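Worked example (supplementary).
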Amino acid sequence: DVKVTQSSRYLVKRTGEKVFLECVQDMDHENMFWYRQDPGLGLRLIYFSYDVKMKEKGDIPEGYSVSREKKERFSLILESASTNQTSMYLCASRPDRGGYEQYFGPGTRLTVT
Amino acid sequence: GQNIDQPTEMTATEGAIVQINCTYQTSGFNGLFWYQQHAGEAPTFLSYNVLDGLEEKGRFSSFLSRSKGYSYLLLKELQMKDSASYLCAVRDDGPARQLTFGSGTQLTVLP
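After joint prediction of all chains, the assembly is encoded as:
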């Protein structure tokens, strides 16, 4: 079974803090994604990566950055957290070949106060 | 870009059949996905259509018409555990094959 794990299920941070969200997948997938999910807005793509050290902006990259130093790990960084970044954050991975399905992690519910 | 529309909420009775519609306008198309998401959990893959027609998988079927920009997910013999949000997502034909998701349809199955 493909497994995508995220470092925390729930996180509470203060405005202005630097926040790291970690995602690890164990299936050697080339592609990894970070989404945020908000009521009425669905899942929106923040950043994705198609290889180690490669990254591409998604639809809403402002206020975020990412890091992919190893193939299995994709980190989302909030440089200075703000209250409008309170959301559910979902990581996903997908192979380049042999499949089209994206596998999601359990999500991190981030609250910025 | 992509624009995806699906109903916000639907209600159906246990044992019944329900159809969840999804319409999309897209600048490039490389497949349509349906995901199921229970409250507080990650989305899980249900179906994938890239050609016109019906794909059946047990109690769930998904239909696609590319010329009409239209898909539906059909759930038969509804069970209480089918209460969840159903997400329609379109994949583009760019190099990243990026998914764009609709807002989801919250289905409530009543006894």
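Two points are worth noting when inspecting this output. The interface with chain B takes residues 4, 31, 35, 40-45, 48, 50, 56, 58-59, 90, 100-107 of chain A (CB under 8 Å). The first strand of chain A starts at residue 4 and ends at 6.
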